[in-house]
């Protein structure tokens, strides 16, 4: 029997877990833990948060195992320039098809705004000569030069939860981020 690698422990803060492993947001919200967006606790541990929601010691242990399993199961498509999760790639393909824009690529632009200073804007567009194009799994992501310099090295995921759904960017170049992951500084 294969032993599960433990990446998350009960002593980690909720904010650290959702920042490092965005795929855990969906699992937490399915379990009734909804304090993972903009109102995420920066000091509360997973154990404290789970117990404040009425979970027993055994339920805390089981949920930690479930979170670790969700990370293990997450398939990623890795590039030296950035990481696009399989879920994000599938969502991009689905959205292109639904909006009848299969000939366009996903442009990710960083612009002033949001609660932390900058925000990500996603749209379907044609690449220009000046754009940086990154291709993974039949998906082309396009960036203007400034946006690419801000986002290179990032992980792009798609999160679908009761709180909402959308693309989440884990950006190592950000000095600080909003708990929801939609804006950064």
Describe this structure in words.
The protein is of the alpha+beta class. It folds into two domains: 14-73; 76-184, HesB-like domain (Hypothetical Protein Aq_1857, Chain: A, Sandwich). It is 31% helix and 26% strand. The chain is built from six helices and nine strands; from the N terminus they run H-H-H-H-E-E-H-E-E-E-E-H-E-E-E. Strands 5-6-3-4-9 form a five-stranded mixed sheet. The protein is elongated, with a radius of gyration of 17 Å. The model has no long low-confidence stretch (mean pLDDT 82).
Keywords for this entry:
185 residues, alpha+beta, Hypothetical Protein Aq_1857, Chain: A, four-stranded mixed beta sheet, 31% helix
Put the structure in a nutshell:
With 185 residues, the chain is α+β, with helices and mostly antiparallel strands. Helices cover 31% and strands 26% of the residues.
Q: How are the SSEs ordered, and which strands pair?
A:
Elements: H1 14-20, H2 24-30, H3 46-52, H4 57-73, E1 76-78, E2 83-85, H5 86-98, E3 105-112, E4 118-125, E5 132-136, E6 139-143, H6 145-151, E7 155-161, E8 164-170, E9 183-184
Parallel strand pairs: 2-7, 3-6
Antiparallel strand pairs: 1-2, 3-4, 4-9, 5-6, 7-8
